[in-house]
Amino acid sequence: MARSSKTPGGYACSECGWRAAKWVGRCGECQQWGTVVESAGPAVARAVRALAPSAGREARPITEIGADAVTHRPTGIGELDRVLGGGVVPGAAILFSGEPGVGKSTLLLDVAHRFAASASTPGRARPGGGGRVLYASGEESTGQIRMRAERTGALHDGLFLVSENELGAVLGQIEAVDPDLVIVDSVQTLASSEVEGSAGGPAQVREAAAALIRVAKERDLPVILVGHVTKDGSVAGPRLLEHLVDVVCHFEGDRQTALRFLRTLKNRFGPTDEIGCFEMTGSGISEVPDPSGLFLSRSAEPVSGTCATVALEGRRALPVEVQALVSASAAPNPRRVTSGVDAARVAMILAVLERRAGARLHDKDVYVSTVGGVRLVEPAADLAIALAVLSAVHDRPLPLDLAAIGELSLAGEIRPVVGGAQRAGEAGRLGYRRLVDAGAGTLARAREAALESR
């Protein structure tokens, strides 16, 4: 039987482009669920003709290429500059992500106001001084943005607003305004009539991001893109979006509290894993330059089940108080409830406490939480969690001037952590005169040193 000349379209992953002959629920390349969709046709390989290098773009030895210093322009917000590595870089593409209502638009409107009020970019003098910022919103009208700007005090003649969803129109506004900074809120709302699919789809997001980044590189124009997030907290759209941009920042915070954190997940011009602290107020969002006391309780008397530790977020040391509550349980399966700490890590610590410290926890409910809504993800908080649980079990409070820093192994040994000297220095600055760390050796010795220090 002759083979049919018709070639089936097959299926392709919208995230990474992986192809399959039939539909599958999970991509075999990037392991994402629900991203394999029907494709219009198979990719056809075409021969690519070699081109002669243009003048001035020939390949040269790396030792002959000059190292141009990357100049950061401060935004006027110290916590944001800390996260970005000193400020925005000309031609940089920055992606801001975060949950709805966390304060992304409020923060970026403040950035736009301060940027417009500051001096213009060197070599681009403006009449009357100052700079120009184009704020393109696809989610709000210009009147709504004006109302929020009046409430937060972000009005300035150099701040230009436009409400537009068409990608070509936004690019035309950039040509007309000639700004020093562009803010697009958000990239998932832009669509191009030349690309198939609705706004927010992988093809549209990819085209919008590529066009804006291309303009940023050609004009040495910093561009800030706001990105939506999915239920699991990742940036919505194709994974390629995070690879295209230069900086990825995630804005997070609990709606029940006023504290907000800005974390950098990727930064080609500065350090990663840096953190900035902000506070939501009635008049907008304000930075918190020294958040050292935000994650500690204000109790004047020692309370059992509490222990302080020092977390390291980028180059910043943050003291955090860990609280534990242990109560008898009548249920066959006692509860293990955590807030602000990793549940799997707490379960391992409880097992080590039963085996190495002789604590009876198999018939008790255990609750472990942090103060202030901060989340501890590093192993340096293991010892503080263990001492807080032991203090709750024996109902013996730890001294108020005691802090614990260390990683706990399954053998009950306390291992040193990264940045121990910086953590100890911050603990001493805040008045913690007693420090339990890897010098204690084992969990049993740390327990004796902590509980007997009273």
UniProtKB/TrEMBL annotation:
Residues 365-454 are annotated as: Lon-protease-like. Belongs to the RecA family. RadA subfamily. Residues 69-229 form the RecA family profile domain. It comes from the Bacteria. NCBIfam families: sms (TIGR00416). InterPro entries: AAA+_ATPase, DNA_repair_RadA, P-loop_NTPase, RecA_ATP-bd, Ribosomal_Su5_D2-typ_SF, Ribsml_uS5_D2-typ_fold_subgr, Rubredoxin_2. PANTHER family: DNA REPAIR PROTEIN RADA (PTHR32472), DNA REPAIR PROTEIN RADA-LIKE PROTEIN (PTHR32472:SF10). The lineage of its organism: Bacteria, Bacillati, Actinomycetota, Actinomycetes, Micrococcales. Pfam families: AAA_25, ChlI, Zn_ribbon_LapB. GO terms for biological process: recombinational repair. DNA-dependent ATPase involved in processing of recombination intermediates, plays a role in repairing DNA breaks. Stimulates the branch migration of RecA-mediated strand transfer reactions, allowing the 3' invading strand to extend heteroduplex DNA faster. Binds ssDNA in the presence of ADP but not other nucleotides, has ATPase activity that is stimulated by ssDNA and various branched DNA structures, but inhibited by SSB. Does not have RecA's homology-searching function. ATP binds at residues 98-105. HAMAP family: RadA_bact (MF_01498). Keywords: ATP-binding, DNA damage, DNA repair, DNA-binding, Hydrolase, Metal-binding, Nucleotide-binding, Stress response, Zinc, Zinc-finger. This is DNA repair protein RadA. The middle region has homology to RecA with ATPase motifs including the RadA KNRFG motif, while the C-terminus is homologous to Lon protease. GO terms for molecular function: ATP binding; ATP-dependent DNA damage sensor activity; damaged DNA binding; hydrolase activity; zinc ion binding. A motif (RadA KNRFG motif) lies at residues 266-270. GO terms for cellular component: cytosol.
